[in-house]
Specification:
335 residues; alpha/beta; Rossmann fold; 2 domains; globular; binds glutamine; L-asparaginase, type II; L-asparaginase_N_sf
Length: 335
């Protein structure tokens, strides 16, 4: 196939993860070490990249993604914004550990100020494994970032030949290659035969259409997650509030239901000024406002379809703008 006349300029920002991992042998697929291979070696392992884009790499950090902090997100988003403001950069690919890929992608979806493509990619097998998925995933991600069809679609997550939206994608399996899915709402499309094929798009606002500006931020408001379960107690909640949490995501059972013994403590925390968002540990579906709790009386916010870890990101960013629960609730319906 003839190469396109003018290749897009794509910057690969490497952050670590299994895609940059190495194991003791070619059959080691668990128990390997993440974040050991540098960005130039990742690029050199896929000479086919040269056919689809002019690529250059930057090592932003080199960690397993479970160790990511808010500061890493701020650093990464700022770098993406600087690069995308340059006329000689057409798109960004971020190589990333898969454990928190959905969180980083959603953070960028809300804070990148450009319609140019941003694709977050990872792998489930380390670079040293037989049939490692990193090289094909990286190839597909660069192809996607260089594709005109990816412009204005928000931040994308691409593994396993599939394209998912940052807001909706989630890791559904601890270890299989097809772990990234958008249950029910569905993926956006496929990458096949050297082309991105799009079939749908999220209706929620992203990138240039959000109100969030992290350009001058060095810290984010403290927001923590309290997990719901039968026989839940208030110990974790109280500890987070005492430690200075400005917001709490309650990962309730079912439709964000509140156990009798947690409802009172959550209401007390709200009276102290802490913003409470009712989310759900279920992972699919809407947490309905005034459904399993009287949110109007309690002055709580509900998470819509965001899972707890993504609700945490939106609340952190929301709290950089307002502490008004009505305004925050609106954010959960538009982002
Ligand atoms: N498949 C992976 O990338 C997981 C490796 C590691 N736990 C990480 O998230 O960085």
């Amino acid at each position: 196939e003839a190469p396109p006349a003018k290749l897009a300029n794509i910057v690969i920002l490497a952050t670590g993860g299994t895609i940059a991992g190495s194991g003791a042998s070619s059959t080691t697929t668990v128990g390997y070490t993440s974040a050991t291979v540098g960005v130039d070696n990742l690029i050199n392992a896929v000479p086919e990249l040269k056919k689809v884009a002019n690529v250059r790499g930057e090592q932003v950090f080199q960690i397993a993604s479970e160790s990511l902090t808010n500061e890493h997100w701020l650093k990464l988003a700022k770098r993406v914004n600087v690069l995308l403001a340059q006329p000689d950069v057409d798109g960004i690919v971020i190589t990333h550990g898969t454990d928190t890929i959905e969180e980083t992608a959603y953070f960028l979806d809300l804070t990148v100020k450009s319609r140019k493509p941003v694709v977050v990619v990872g792998a489930m097998r380390p670079s040293t494994a037989i049939s490692a998925d990193g090289p094909i995933n990286l190839y597909n991600a660069v192809l996607l970032a260089a594709s005109k069809d990816a412009i204005g679609k928000g931040v994308l997550v691409s593994l396993n030949d599939q394209i998912n939206a940052a807001r909706e994608v989630t890791k559904t399996n601890t270890s299989t290659l097809d772990t990234f899915k958008t249950p029910e709402l569905g993926m956006l499309g496929y990458i096949q035969d050297n082309r991105a094929h799009f079939y749908r798009q999220s209706t929620r606002k992203n990138t240039l259409d959000t109100e969030f500006d992290i350009g001058n931020l060095d810290v984010l408001p403290q927001v923590d997650i309290v997990y719901g379960y039968a026989n839940v107690n208030r110990i974790a909640l109280d500890a987070f509030v005492t430690a200075g949490a400005k917001g709490i995501i309650y990962a309730g059972v079912g439709d964000g239901s509140l156990a009798a013994q947690i409802k009172g403590p959550l209401a007390e925390a709200r009276k102290k000024g802490v913003i409470i968002v009712r989310s759900s540990r279920v992972g699919q579906g809407i947490v309905a406002r005034n459904g399993e709790a009287n949110d109007d009386d309690l002055d709580f916010v509900t998470s819509d379809t965001l899972n707890p870890q993504k609700a945490r990101i939106l609340l952190m960013l929301g709290l950089t703008k307002t502490h008004d629960t009505k305004a925050l609730q609106t954010m959960f319906s538009i982002y």
